[in-house]
Design brief:
Helices cover 35% and strands 9% of the residues. It is of the alpha/beta class. The chain has one domain: Rossmann fold. It has a 6-stranded mixed β-sheet with strand order 5-4-3-1-2-6, with helices on both faces. The protein is globular, with a radius of gyration of 19 Å.
Length: 323
């Protein structure tokens, strides 16, 4: 049985809002989930749901352009600060927004104030005539330790539903997606999607945009079998390992006022035209990175030969920041 909520059967007014005839420019803003952690492309760079979605949308729109401004560890003030201003400059047709996760996990953050900041940012996008897809928080009830944040995430996600209603924005309710409660959709850090998780989210957004990647089951029921359940002693051992490798560094980083995104720049700061002769859209490579400045090639995710040398300090490295 497919798990659905009212968001699936009675979508917010944004689903009926006026939309552009075609999506020709897409900008993704957010934190590490939008950046693509932990969905590694064959070249070792992060890909993610936004890259996958852009690759898919570009197959039917000549001249399709895509930018990804997300950076791991970013909080609401960053996403609706510099990222928002850059987005408005790009004048996209579509923006996906996943924001607030790094704020919600801070116990002293007032969720009502946070939601008000979120709504202000969304209204600026909508006032500019941009179609917006909001991604809600996901259920952490299955994750030891992180399940203590479940109530805060649920409250903030309901705020996001209200914002979507008031601003005529679309929303993808990650909480309602049963597939995301399966460990097979998550990285070993239990904070970020793996390739399967990002593929599921991309497919759900594509269906919302009336441009499905395939049958509904690819995001609602991606596996034919239930997840493996380890014996209690092995689960306990795995939880201790996870705490040592991921939870402790995360807590230490917070205590020191540091972020895994310190000094990082967006992987795709300017919209680039995606190459139309790209290989299979489901398994292409991640967008190329540059040192910042104008790009000299109109290549994007999956473009054959389209990668450039990434700037120093980029690529895969240990992380523990939620985002």
């Amino acid at each position: 049985m497919v798990d659905v909520t009212d968001l699936e059967t009675n979508p917010p007014v944004g689903d009926q809002a006026q939309r552009p005839a075609a999506i020709r420019t897409y900008v993704a803003i957010g934190d590490s989930l939008t950046e693509g952690l932990d969905d590694l492309a064959p070249d070792g760079e992060y890909r993610g749901f936004a890259d996958r979605l852009a690759e898919h949308l570009s197959t039917s729109v000549p001249g399709f352009r895509y930018a990804n401004l997300a950076v791991r560890g970013r909080r609401m003030k960053h996403i609706f600060g510099d990222q928002l201003e850059q987005t408005l400059d790009h004048k996209p047709d579509l923006v996906t927004v996943h924001a607030g996760g790094n704020d919600v996990l801070r116990p002293n953050t007032d969720l009502d104030d946070l939601a008000a900041q979120f709504e202000t940012g969304i209204r600026r996008l909508r006032d500019a005539g941009i179609r917006v897809v909001i991604l809600s928080g996901h259920d952490t009830g299955w994750i030891p330790v992180l399940k203590v944040y479940r109530g805060r995430i649920a409250v903030f996600s309901m705020h996001l539903r209200a914002v979507a209603e008031r601003t005529a924005s679309d929303i993808v309710d990650l909480w309602s997606m049963g597939a995301l409660n399966d460990p097979r959709a998550w990285s070993v850090d239990r904070l970020h999607f793996n390739a399967e998780g990002h593929r599921i989210v991309a497919a759900r957004i594509a269906e919302l945009l009336d441009d499905p990647m395939g049958p509904r089951e690819i995001w609602s029921r991606p596996w034919d079998t239930p997840p493996e359940r380890l014996p209690r002693i092995l689960r306990r051992r795995e939880n201790w390992r996870w705490a040592r490798q991921h939870l402790v560094p995360w807590i230490s980083r917070r205590a020191m006022g540091r972020s895994s995104g310190d000094g990082r720049r967006p992987k795709l700061p300017e919209p680039v035209e995606l190459a139309p002769d790209r290989p299979d859209t489901q398994e292409g490579s991640a967008p190329s990175e540059d040192s910042g400045g104008d790009r000299t090639e109109n290549r994007g995710p999956g473009a054959a030969g389209g990668r450039t040398t990434p700037p120093a300090g980029r690529g895969r490295e240990p992380y523990s920041e939620r985002g």
